[in-house]
Amino acid sequence: MKYLAAMLAVLALSGCQTPEPAPETAPAPQPARQAMPAPEPGDVNAGRAFAQKNCSTCHAVAATGASPYAPAPPLRTLHEKYDVEGLAEAFAEGILVGHKGPKQMPEFVLTPEEIDDLLAYLKSFE
To answer: How far apart, in whole angstroms, are the C-alpha atoms of residue 114 and residue 93?
Structure first.
């Protein structure tokens, strides 16, 4: 009888056991955050305004159209011949361009902010 009571106790207790919790699943991996590229220095609109004021008598400064002075290339094409970023030094020191013709490009010495703005405008054509 003791054996039977012990068996009933074991059976009764085994039914009362709480099931083991399911193993926790790892949280779904989050997509890697892409580092945002640093914004380019300069203001395209300020660069456009600078070009309109200082360059448009000879160069085409818009996305279309011919230069008013034929030997002066449109500004939108400068990136095809030059590394635009490399023009920063020339703009800072005073850009001199000699070409044949009755007009010569005046020497310009730009401030760092004007350089950033003009380069941003020229890069907008790339």
So the answer is: 13
